[in-house]
Amino acid sequence: RIAGKLRKAMEKDHLHRDPNLSLWALSRHIGASPNYVSQTLNEVIGESFFDFVNGYRIAEAMTRLETTNDNVLTITYDVGFNARSSFYNAFKRVSGQTPTNYRKNSVST
């Protein structure tokens, strides 16, 4: 039940776009204790809070890179990252390429 609420908070309420999102704020939003949320993330979803949130940020960034002409820095901040370097590192860890290369490759396919 908590896992569903967590996913809804990201997919429908777009909490991942808040660069200051914390475990405490997410827990309050869905009406569960931070301990339950952390346990659910680790045991049910299999991700840390950080990886869970960044997964939604990167997924939205990928969509925007494919479907808009917004520059990478605009997308970085819009999806919830505080710094370009954090975004690039997380993006490359997930996709294996830089955001610019991802855009080039997705346009040519």
Q: What low-confidence regions span 5 or more consecutive residues with pLDDT below 50?
A: none
Mind describing the biggest β-sheet? Answer: none
| H and E order | HHHHHHH
Oligomer classification: single chain
Q: Separation of termini?
A: 39 Å
Please tell me the overall pLDDT.
95
Can you summarize this structure?
This protein is mainly α and 109 residues long. The chain has helices spanning 2-11, 23-30, 34-45, 49-67, 72-78, 84-95, 99-108. Helix 4 crosses helix 7.
Question: Topology of this protein?
Answer:
Layout: H1 2-11, H2 23-30, H3 34-45, H4 49-67, H5 72-78, H6 84-95, H7 99-108
Task: Explain what this protein looks like in three dimensions.
This protein has 109 residues and is mainly alpha-helical. The protein is built from 7 helices and no strands. The longest helix is centred in the middle third of the chain and has 19 residues. It is elongated. The relative contact order is 0.13.
Name the descriptors:
109 residues, mainly alpha, elongated
